[in-house]
Design brief:
Elements (H helix, E strand, L loop, with lengths): L3 E6 L3 H12 L4 E7 L2 H11 L3 E4 L8 H11 L5 E5 L4 H10 L3 E4 L4 H12 L4 E2 L1 H13 L10 H11 L4 H8 L3 H15 L4 H10 L13
Parallel strand pairs: 1-2, 1-3, 3-4, 4-5, 5-6
Helix pairs in contact: 2-3, 7-9, 7-10, 8-9
Keywords: DNA-binding, Phosphoprotein
Protein name: Response regulator transcription factor
InterPro entries: CheY-like_superfamily, NreC/VraR/RcsB-like_REC, Sig_transdc_resp-reg_C-effctor, Sig_transdc_resp-reg_receiver, Tscrpt_reg_LuxR_C, WalR-like, WH-like_DNA-bd_sf
């Protein structure tokens, strides 16, 4: 049996450890490299030539979406499975647009991740059940998403702004300066034609980026 070499990209070492144990229990699966940033993922990919990459989206600095795009530019045959907490169809569509071959949410059962890895390795496309449902609803709705106007990083910032995080908290989470986050914030408002932050939240809910019942106070 050919070995399936895996590159794990997540900025939490404890999380990576858990996934490594889960994956290496599967026959022929071996985690050959790990990274915690987009730049680290790109370097690790070039150095280890893995069979498949398991990529988180929320990384310090440039996002996982940027890492997906960068790796796929260097190697168009790269098989990348996004594994993230982001549950909206908008994020999944952005990930596939960037070149991902699969999208599984972290709320999925562990077996779903294992199945998705096997499918992506065989050359297929994989989505977890919750995302499949979201994508189907979006396709049936036939509406063009407002988020088509936004770059991947802008989608990420919008999701965090709309969920109630302060500029400082977002800056810390993404390892960017508060000024950079403010610039993104103003740019997103302009692109979407949002009158104020309340309107921005409403647009994010309408686009499926956040759910009305999961707004948090991050102040």
């Amino acid at each position: 049996m050919n070995e399936t070499a895996i590159l794990l990209v997540d900025d939490h070492p404890v999380v990576r450890e858990g996934y490594r144990r889960l994956l290496e229990r599967q026959p022929g699966y071996r985690v050959v490299a790990e990274a915690e940033t987009a730049a680290g993922a790109y370097r690790a990919y070039k150095a280890s030539s893995p069979t498949v990459v398991i990529m988180d989206l929320t990384l310090p600095g440039p996002s996982g979406l940027e890492a997906v795009r960068h790796i796929r530019q260097w190697d168009p045959r790269a098989r990348i499975l996004v594994f993230t907490m982001h549950q909206g169809a908008a994020f999944a569509l952005k990930a596939f647009e960037a070149g991902a071959a699969g999208y599984v949410t972290k709320s999925s059962a562990p077996e779903e991740l294992v199945r998705a890895v096997a499918l992506v390795v065989r050359g297929g496309q994989a989505v977890s059940a919750d995302i499949a449902q979201e994508l189907a609803a979006e396709r049936l709705g036939g509406k063009r998403s407002l988020l088509d106007e936004l770059a991947p990083r802008e989608v990420e910032v919008l999701q965090l702004v709309a969920s109630g995080m302060t500029t400082e908290a977002i800056a810390k989470a993404l390892s960017l300066s508060p000024k950079t986050i403010q610039n993104y914030h103003y740019g997103i408002k302009a692109k979407l034609g949002a009158r104020n932050d309340a309107h921005l939240v409403w647009l994010a809910i309408e686009a499926g980026l956040i759910r009305p019942g999961v707004l948090h106070d991050h102040t």
